[in-house]
Structures are given as structure tokens and as C-alpha cells.
Amino acid sequence: MTDIFDDLTAECRRLDEVLTALTPEQWAAPSAAAGWTVADVVLHLAQTNDAAGVPADGPAKAFLEPDSAMDAVADAMVAAERGLPPAELLARWRTSAAAMTGRLRDQPPGTRLAWVRTPLSPRTLATTRIAEHWAHALDIAVPLGIPCPDTARLRHIAWLAHRTLPYAFAVEGLPDAPVHCDLTGPDGERWTFGDPAAPNRITGSAGEFCRVGARRLAPGRTSLSAEGPRAADALRVLRNYAA
């Protein structure tokens, strides 16, 4: 997980390149996030950037409430600011991304920061922000036919998905189960997570694995292999986020 903050900056920079080239019509086009335009997705990213690394009783209090219904909160927050012109919205997101990355990078060791369901370390919170920017970049780029190739930064997202499997099982009311993941990165890298002796094993494309965790791809539509008594359950509950 070295250079996580640099990788967060790089993930934001790639999205910036996509957004800079959009036409006004594309900003208003439907995204792959149900009910949201491209502009809505960018606004949501700016709002959640504003919430990352700030006091829990600050402006983002509604977002950070542990018992809040996150989808409803996100929809309400977007509705409250919807309608910004594209240039103004792009500037708002850029400012939020730079400020968020700086806040997280500057935190002293041992800090725990309020986040959706549980306090996180600055590095883990930075990982969740990479995951969210990556997933929402797909929501923008794919419907518009804009190339958005996978990068080695997927390793952070795959780590997060595996690391949060106990939480994902618990959310679904299932007992925890050890899972080993043996994944292939976009350039043929081999990424492994978990105990190799675990009775459950998931192998295959890291890109597919991360898309399953982002709920952008159903497990049955992937080439991922799930072996062991609980491996299919793990793929079904997999998530790259904490809501």
C-alpha cells in the first residue's frame, strides 16, 4: 500500500482528463449510476471528498452519521446542489479532490478518521476514495463510450474488497469465512490476498473482481473462479465500499 496518496492523486487526475473533455451535452447525459446524470456523479464525488478527513460534527455530519441510509443521504445532498454549470462544478470537484488528498496525507500516524460506518486510518480512507473515484469514472465513461482502461491502482481496490469481506459477510447476516484471492492485474501482475491455505479461493481478473465489488458487474457474468464452500458467497457479498 505504498504511495497510496500519490495513487489517489493519479486516480483523480485521470478522471480530470475525462471531465475536461466533456461537452455540455455529455455533462447532462445519464450516467450508469441510476437516476444521476454525469454532473450529479461529479457533484457526489465533490461532496464526499468534502466529508473525507473532516470532523464528524462538521458540514458533512449527515453523511457521516453511522445509522444514516446512505443512498438517501447521497441523493438528498446531490439534489440540494444540483444545477451548477459544468465549469463551476468541475472547479468545485477539483478543489475538493486536492483538499481531501492534502488532509489525508497530512494526518499524523495513528489517526482514525470518521467515515460512513466506522473510523478509518487515513491510508484506508484514501483507498476508499480511489475505489469510489474509479467506480464513478466507469459510471461516466462507459455510457459515453470514453475509454477508461484499468491500471495498477486496482491493486488498492482489490485489497480493500478482500480486507472488508468480514464486514460484507456481516452486513448480509452471514458468518465470516476465510478467503484467499489470487488475481491477475491489468498488465499480467499476480496479486494475492489472504491465507493460501484458506478453504475458499477466488481466482481470475482483478478488473472483474473489483467491478463485482463495486456492484458494476454480476459474478455470473465474469470469468472468476470461486472454489470452496463459501467462495460463491464471498463473491456475492463482495464490496469495495462501507455502506
Automatic annotation (TrEMBL):
GO molecular function, one term: isomerase activity
Gene3D superfamilies: dinb family like domain (1.20.120.450)
SUPFAM superfamilies noted in UniProt: DinB/YfiT-like putative metalloenzymes
Residue ranges of domain Mycothiol-dependent maleylpyruvate isomerase metal-binding in the record: 8-141
InterPro entries: DinB/YfiT-like (IPR034660), Maleyloyr_isom (IPR017517), MDMPI_metal-binding (IPR024344)
Family matches, as Pfam families: MDMPI_N
Record's keyword terms, sorted: Isomerase
Name of this chain's protein: Maleylpyruvate isomerase family mycothiol-dependent enzyme
